[in-house]
């Protein structure tokens, strides 16, 4: 299923005829600078609940007040003073659990932070890596620091300063680096060894096949040998490298990622179980059902039924 667009975001949150509450696109959107916006979460009070889906933009949100964040197939996070980041690769949903929630959110597309403008490739940063799950419960001191950046963004977005987009990028990088500092230190270490480089290449190759946007064509790379051939290494070497760097075999990593995507497709798309099995490269539905039950502890049909009711 295709991700929700920026246009759909603004359509859903446009102020109603009897209320000024809502979110409007920035007035100078579409001037070749990419898209950026920042808004107070208080402006979302009374709007319809968010759906669980992918978006085609990045978003960083700080929520004050009890709320729930569902991200990919990870366990739901429930807490107050929650900071989270999502990318177009990851389906998510944020649900406030109190009526007087507050905080800020900013959204931006890849064009706003093009490497030609910033000198940095967004996808190379740790918090934007495949498999990252950046959702944190934030201490009060960190909340104040994050809020201060959002407030500077909001003030500058409404200014008439000729170079405001350059300044907004600076504030956004400040926020991204502050978010990265909240991660455990080991996740920020650079990759230097040959084994780590092969493992990184494997992960990038794997993630390029997802998300699945349509049932056909099926996955191009499906087995450990497929990945080894693509990386021009022997399959035994690839297994040894991945076991060394991740603690898991190639097959285990592939199975875990397939199971994750299967859960998302069952939860997020109207595709039949047969179509999902085909899309993920299974020979038939029976093989897919056996695989899914082994990894999820229930059949695809049971998982989908429980997901519909939010269990």
Q: What's this entry about, in short?
A:
The protein is built from eleven helices and eight strands.
Key features?
Arc Repressor Mutant, subunit A, 8 strands, alpha+beta, 2 domains, 311 residues, 11 helices, 5-stranded antiparallel beta sheet
Reconstruct the topology from this structure.
Elements: H1 6-13, E1 36-40, E2 58-64, E3 67-71, E4 77-79, E5 82-86, E6 92-96, E7 102-108, H2 115-118, E8 135-137, H3 140-157, H4 164-181, H5 194-207, H6 224-231, H7 235-246, H8 250-268, H9 273-279, H10 285-296, H11 300-308
Rg (C-alpha, Å): 21 Å
| H-E string | HEEEEEEEHEHHHHHHHHH
Instruction: Profile the largest sheet.
Output: 5 strands, antiparallel
| Total number of beta strands | 8
> What is the subunit arrangement here?
single chain
**CATH fold name of the largest domain, please?**
Jelly Rolls
Judged by helices, strands and strand pairing, the structural class is alpha+beta
Please bin the fraction of helical residues: 40-55%
Distance between the termini: 22 Å
Taken from the alpha-carbon principal axes, the silhouette is globular
Strand order of the largest sheet: 1-7-2-5-8
- Return the domain count: 2
Measured by DSSP, the beta-strand proportion falls in 5-15%
Low-confidence stretches are 186-191
Describe this structure as you would to a colleague.
There is one protein chain. The protein has helices at residues 6-13, 115-118, 140-157, 164-181, 194-207, 224-231, 235-246, 250-268, 273-279, 285-296, 300-308; strands at residues 36-40, 58-64, 67-71, 77-79, 82-86, 92-96, 102-108, 135-137. It is globular, with a radius of gyration of 21 Å. It has two domains: 6-188, Jelly Rolls (Sandwich); 194-308, Homeodomain-like (Arc Repressor Mutant, subunit A), CATH 1.10.10. Helix content is 41%, strand content 13%. α3 (140-157) runs antiparallel to α4. A hairpin with a 5-residue loop joins β3 and β4. It has eleven helices and eight strands. The model is unreliable at 186-191 (pLDDT under 50). The protein is of the alpha+beta class and 311 residues long. Strands 1-7-2-5-8 form a five-stranded antiparallel beta sheet, with helices on one face.
């Amino acid at each position: 299923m295709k991700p929700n667009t920026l246009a759909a975001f603004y359509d859903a949150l446009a102020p109603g005829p009897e209320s000024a509450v809502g979110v409007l696109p920035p007035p100078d959107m579409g001037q070749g600078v990419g898209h950026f916006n920042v808004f107070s979460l208080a402006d979302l009070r009374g709007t319809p609940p968010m759906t669980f889906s992918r978006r085609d933009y990045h978003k960083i949100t700080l929520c004050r007040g009890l709320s729930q964040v569902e991200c990919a197939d990870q366990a739901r996070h429930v807490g107050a003073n929650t900071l989270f980041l999502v990318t177009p690769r990851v389906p998510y949903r944020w649900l406030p659990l109190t009526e007087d929630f507050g905080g800020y959110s900013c959204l931006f597309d890849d064009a706003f932070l093009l490497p030609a403008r910033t000198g940095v490739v967004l996808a190379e940063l740790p918090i934007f890596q495949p498999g990252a799950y950046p959702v944190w419960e934030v201490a009060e001191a960190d909340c104040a620091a994050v809020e201060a950046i959002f407030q500077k963004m909001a003030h500058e977005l409404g200014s008439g300063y000729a170079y405001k987009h350059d300044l907004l990028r600076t504030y956004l990088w400040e926020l991204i680096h502050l978010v990265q500092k909240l991660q455990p230190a080991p996740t920020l270490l650079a990759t230097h060894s040959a084994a780590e480089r092969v493992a990184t290449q494997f992960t990038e190759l794997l993630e390029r096949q997802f998300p699945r946007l349509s049932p056909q064509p099926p996955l191009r790379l499906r087995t450990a040998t497929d990945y080894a051939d693509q990386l021009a290494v022997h399959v035994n070497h690839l297994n040894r490298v991945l076991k060394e760097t991740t603690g898991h075999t190639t097959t285990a990593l592939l199975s875990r990622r397939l199971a994750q995507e299967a859960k998302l497709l069952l939860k997020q798309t109207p595709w039949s179980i047969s179509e999902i099995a085909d899309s993920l490269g299974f020979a038939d539905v029976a093989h897919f059902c056996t695989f899914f039950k082994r990894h999820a502890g229930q059949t695809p049909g049971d998982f989908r039924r429980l997901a519909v009711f939010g269990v």
